[in-house]
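Example: Phosphatase PAP2 family protein.
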Amino acid sequence: MKDSLTTRLHRFTVARFSPQEQFGLHLTLGVLVLLLAMAGFARIAEEVLTGAPITLLDLRLANWLHQHANDSSFLRSFLFGITQLHSTPGALGLTALAGWWLARRGARHWMLTLVSAVPGGMLLNVALKHTFVRARPHFDAPILSLTTYSFPSGHTMTATVLYGVLACYLVRHARSWQARAAIVLAACIMVLLVAGSRLYLGAHYLTDVLAAMLEGCAWLAICVTGVATLRRRQAARARRSDYS
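Written out as structure tokens, the predicted fold is:
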């Protein structure tokens, strides 16, 4: 009985780290990313709600950026363009374009991942905003005047899941580690550009965008892992039907 239990535990452990199993390595990594991202988000949310010292950094950084926001009209215009491109209409347009590109490549499951990640992530973010009801940074002469809530940043969350899905797809099909590194770096730069534009324009605090990145990573882990598991199950059923 003891040997049987040990054998079962060994098989279970091996299966969780097998790239070929239906519930193998992809699911293990997905759950790990989900748990880490959720823990990080919960820590930031707790510090925001309790007024921890990081909220003082929020205020100081927001005030400093606002004081220097008019130093460069080119930088302000560039970041304003970035933030507009990743607004709800812009992000949905980018998602539609990315979905069309994936359809042309026959990546049906990745299209499903994209559709569940971006619009679904937007809805999740709205729900979280109305849960935390944090006011946006306030200035006497704001660059942007917004009446919605601040925590977490919707633009940053949307960019995280959008470029995260595309990066996952491209990394899977890249042929060298250099190409994979370049893809991940490009995705991170785009997310940081969007987050930076929200900070620079005075729409969010630092903790808003950090929490949004973690929120996006958690939701991305759910969507990518869930669709990958569905694809593997369908493939396994197809193989069983071929054998029968």
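The chain has a mean pLDDT of 86.
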